Each structure stands twice: as C-alpha cells, then as structure tokens.
Amino acid sequence: MNPKRWFSSDWLLVVPLALFFVIFVGVPLALVAFISLHNDTAMMHYGVRQYLLFFGDGYNRGILWETLGLGAATTVVTAVLGYPVAWLYGVATARWRRVLMVLILLPLLTSSVVRTFAWVVILGNQGLVNEMLLGLGWISAPLRLLYTPQAVILSLAQIELPLMVLPLITALSAIDTRLPEASHALGASRWRTWWKIVLPLSVPGLLSGTLLVFTGAASAFVVQTLVGGGQLMYMPFYIYEQAIQTQDYPFASALAVILLVSVLVVVTLLNYFGRRTRGFVHG
Amino acid sequence: MADFDPTMTAPLAAQPGGKSFHATMGLLGGLGLLVLIAPTLIVLVTSLTSGYSLKFPPPGFSLRWYKALIFDSPEIIDDLLLSLRLAALATACATVLAVAAAVTLARRRSLAARLLDSFFMSPLTIPSLALGLGILILFNLESAGLSFYSLLAGHIALCAPYVLYTTSASYAQLDPALLDSSICLGASSRFTFRRMVLPALAPGIASGAFIAFMNSFDNVALSLFLSDARSEVLPIHLWHIIEDSLDVRAAAASGVLIIATLASMLLMERLSGLSKQFR
Questions:
Q1: Measured distance CA(A115)–CA(A154) in Å, rounded
Q2: How far apart are the first and last CA of chain A?
Q3: How far apart are alpha carbons A109 and B265 in whole angstroms?
Q4: What does each C-alpha distance from B273 to A98, A280, B253 come to in angstroms?
Q5: Which member of A27, A161, A243 has the closest CB to residue B35?
Q6: Chain A within 8 Å of B15 (Cβ-Cβ)?
Q7: For the domain that residue A90 is a member of, what is the CATH number?
Q8: Chain A interface includes B180 (CB < 8 A)
Q9: With the CA atoms of B1, B7, B9 and B15 taken in that order, what torsion angle do they form, in degrees rounded to the nearest 10?
C-alpha cells in the first residue's frame, strides 16, 4: 500500500503555512520589487531610474562587487580550513567524533553577535594579537587590524566554518572506502588518491557548503558592520542605511532586489553544478 | 555506507606520500579547530576581567561584570526577556505550521509539492534584510505600524524552514511498512498518526524547533527593520553596545549566552540526537 493514501485528503494541512508565507514572504518581496520600480521617493512615477542610478555609479557597483567578493573569499577560506576538519572527523574514533561534533556545533549555535564580539576582542587595539606583537617587541604601536577587509573575511570565515564542515562530513562519510583502498593497492600515493578519487567524490559536499557559506557571508549584517566598521560598506548595511536613515525606499528596494538577484544567480549556478556532480558520483 | 575506518588508515599512512598527507591534513585541521573554538574561549576569559576594558589577556580576574550585568542592567535583562519571549512564540507558531505542512509534503514528488517546498525554504537563501524591508513596507502600507506582532511575523517566517526541513527528513526515514501494518491491524489513521508517526518524528521536530529558536534569538537583520522604538531585542542591544562603547558588560552577557548555548545544546543532544540533523 502506498503511504500517500494516508494523508491524501490532507492537503488542507499545508494551507496555513502557505497562506502565512504568501502574506509575509511573497507579498513583501513583491512589494520590494514594485517599490524599486519608482523614479522618485514620493513614488509618483514608475521607471527604472533607481537601477540606472545604481549601475551608472562606480561607487555603487563597487559595493556590489565587494559584497560578492567577500562571499567568495569567505568561501575559499572556509573550504581550506574546513576540509581538513571534516577529514579529521572521518578518521577519528567514536569518542573523538563526539568531541569534534561539539566543537563544530557550538560556534554554529552561539549567537553571531557574540562570535563577532570575540573578533573585536581579538583584533582590537588592546586585543590578543596586538598585545602579543607588542609583548614580543615586533611593533611599537598597536596595528589597526579591525575595520580592514581581511579582518571581515577572517571573522566571517570563522562564523561560517561549521556550515562548510558539516556537508563535507556527510560527503566524506558517503565515500565507499574500497575506492581509496583500490587506489592504494594499485600503487597511487596518498596525495594522488586524494586528488584523483576522494576530492572529486567530495565535490557535492563542497558545493552545498559553498551555497550555505556564500549566501550567509554576502548578507552577514552583524560582522560586516562590527568588524568592517563605518569605512567598509557592503550591500546589507547600504540597504539599511538607505531605508532607515535616508528613508529613500525606492533606492533601498532596488538595492535589496539587486542583492537578492545576485545571490539567487549564484545559488542557481551552484545547484546546477551540484546536480551534475551528483550524477557523476553515483554514475 | 562505510565510514573511514581509523584502524585501516593507520597502515595506509605507510603508503607513499602518507606522512606528508597526514601531516598537512592534521595541521590544517588543527588550525581549523583552533579557529572554530578559540574566539569562544577568548570571550569567556575576557568576561572574567577585573579591569575596565576589553584588554586581552585581562589584568586580573573577577566576577564583577557578571554582577553588574545581573544587578545594574535592567535594560539588558528586559531585552533578554523580550528576545526569549519572541523566540519562544515564533518557534511555537512556526513548529505548528511547519509540522502540519511537512507531514503533507514529505512524501509527495509532484511539481506543486516541490515548488511549495522551495517557497517554504526560501527564507534561508533570501538575504533577511530584503525580507525585513518587505515586511516593513507591508506593515506601513496597512498603516498597522510596527509592534511586537510585526517582529513576530518576520521571525515565524525565519523559523519555519528549519522545522520543515528536520521534520521532512525524519518523515523520509520512517518505514512505510510500519504504517501499512498498523492500518492492516485495524488501527485508524488518526491512531496511527498519534501513536506511530508523531513519536517517530518527535526528535526531528524537537531538533528543528531548537535550531529555529537559536536562529530567532540570534537574528539582527530582520529585527532591525521590524521592531518598534520601544522594543529592542537583545542581539540588537549588544550590537549597539559593541558598536558604540565596548562596555565590558557585553562580554559578560556573551559569557552567559555561550554557557546557556552549550548547556542547551548538550541537553538537546541527549534528548533528541541534535547532531544527527546536521549529517
């Protein structure tokens, strides 16, 4: 008997959530798109002036590229640090796996404001890094570490790292151990086996991790504002500033649409590659 | 599927290139783990400082900032209570809505079901600032103004995907033969649902609700747009403190949050196997 029969009359159960999502997700996003298509803040004239304004100005385009670049750089750092962590989890004993899981999940569940705060403490003028360098006598005055793009990338990478490690653990544990064994038996070195066999088979995990890290990093308001400070401008704070401080709703809405579409384009591309590589893994 | 077997990898280290491979992976992995955990430890140590600044290492240790937090900071406590109330209500509403939807959607493969599923998961991908701005415009349009309820609406949308995801995953693991035998033995479908389906889904639902709660409690981007002037949630309050004054009470508040997160995480792991949801 098909389990479908069980709740076949119960499409009704989806209705409450569907209604809620139409009103509080669908309609709001449609409103943002609609308002972005107005030429003036009084919203009397329709037009694409906000978009022309955005793409016609190098400063604005720069902010978009900085934001997407931040997502990409964060993804690379999390992949380089996260892959070995997932590998360690793979070779660990059951007891160590429990410890590792706590170490990986605790940062994920801890408030992002708290985790960002940690980086303000580490990189601040009286922070860990500056005190250490001063103590060693390598520098005579505290370095300005906060409010640099590198600091933003490093803090974001730490905050998003669990989201890269977890899909990689899933992907690595799904690999048939006989494949690397066969590769060794046929005389390949560890590196060659990893490069030719294990890494290609872990691509689906890398892609899901990339998806989560990129979308998270591109819209990470807290880190961008606290570690980036006032000098570094990224799309999320730009949206906030234009909407709440300048009260320019059409421009803020256009910014939101542009960020949303850029993120969705990246997600769609990754999903496309993801489907192709999954076929590759099982085929 | 077989995992990497530690007993097997040991002799494999003797393979050509085995040493350099293990050394590289081990070192980078160790660095990754250090990066993961060090910031949390540093915040905990800093919160115990006896000084007036966030100097690290602290000049001395005391519990003074925890005392200041508990006895002299009614505004932080108020915001904490608001955040807890908001996260609890949003999680409760989202859980009821999402479990009902998940039970229906989980085994359907039709286009409509898949589209609805993507729609319900979309708050995870959509930058929450875009969603916040949209809901703000919606409430202004209805001249409803902002209140606790605008905040709640946004947070329910944020919470629903987590519960939907974990509940659907648990449902997919449910053996259909069990349901069939229950029906064949004469149980009503309501009885089967209550006595078999719900208990089997419970760990998934509980884990999803927990993750949703933590996310709602942590959210800044939506709350920035949706809270009225009177209600400030805790993460926004801390955000302001860190941005403006770097008051050490922020470290004490962070310390409290870290301990509470660790304790509730270990509790959920014991109760519902939380970590299974992430693999």
A1: 12
A2: 31
A3: 8
A4: 11, 32, 28
A5: A161
A6: yes
A7: 1.10.3720.10
A8: yes
A9: -140
Residues of chain B neighbouring A147 (CB-CB closer than 8 A): none
* Tokens 């029906």, residue located: B183
Residue A52 falls inside a structural domain: no
Rounded to a whole number, what is the distance in angstroms from the first to the last CA of chain B? 13
Contact assessment for residue A86 and residue A165, using Cβ atoms and an 8 Å cutoff:
yes
Level-2 CATH architecture, domain B64-278:
Orthogonal Bundle (1.10)
Burial class (CB in 10 A: 0-12, 13-18, 19+), A167: buried
CA distances from A138 to A130, A142, A145, A147 (A): 10, 10, 15, 21
**0.90 surpassed by complex ipTM:** no
A104 located within any domain: yes
| Helices first, then strands: H and E counts in chain A | 15, 0
Within a domain: A28: no
CB A212 within 8 A of CB A37: no
Q: Which pair of structure tokens corresponds to residue B209?
A: 């609700």
| Of A271, A163, A270, A255, residue with least CA distance to A216 | A163
B114-160: per-residue pLDDT in tens?
899 999 999 988 999 999 999 999 998 877 778 888 999 999 999 99
SS3 content of chain A, % helix, strand, coil (to 5): 80, 0, 20
Q: Which residues contact A275 (CB under 8 A, 6 or more apart)?
A: none
Residue B84: count of CB within 10 angstroms of its CB: 15
pLDDT digits over A188-231, tens only?
Answer: 888 888 888 888 888 888 998 999 999 999 988 989 988 888 78
d(CA A112, CA A263): 21
Nearest CA distance, A81 vs chain B (angstrom):
5
Helix (H, G, I), strand (E, B) or coil at A38: strand
Which residue out of B8, B28, B36, B233 would a mutagenesis test of the A interface target, given it has the greatest number of A Cβ atoms within 10 Å? B36
Domain encompassing residue A64: 58-282
User: What is the pTM (predicted TM-score) of this model?
Assistant: 0.87
Q: How far is CA A281 from the centre of its chain?
A: 25
- The total domain count for chain A is 1
C-beta of residue A117 within 8 angstroms of C-beta of residue B245: no
Q: Is A26 contained in some domain?
A: no
